[in-house]
User: Which sequence fits this backbone?
């Protein structure tokens, strides 16, 4: 079994996939881990993109924060690993 501390990217790696769902930049958002209570920017999460889809884990305890899987014309998003996600509306880029 490989260690969870290797083979991960930071949360910025998920920006492209997340931009398909959210109009705002999620990497700058702050979230709280439902497992350990750590509050961090999503960009600090450990992201694994080797599986089908995207898995983001807490940088502190490695608990799963987010799962995103695209299947045909559907996107499945699981955020149950976070107690909240706070988006700063001052940083919203207008749509072109």
Assistant:
């Amino acid at each position: 079994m490989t260690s969870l501390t290797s083979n991960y990217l930071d949360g910025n790696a998920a920006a492209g996939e997340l931009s398909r769902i959210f109009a705002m930049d999620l990497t700058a958002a702050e979230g709280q881990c439902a497992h350990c209570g750590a509050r961090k920017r999503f960009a600090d999460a450990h992201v694994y993109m080797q599986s089908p889809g995207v898995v983001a884990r807490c940088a502190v305890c490695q608990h799963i924060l987010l799962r995103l899987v695209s299947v045909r014309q559907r996107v499945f998003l699981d955020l149950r690993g976070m107690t909240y996600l706070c988006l700063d509306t001052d940083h919203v880029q207008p749509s072109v």
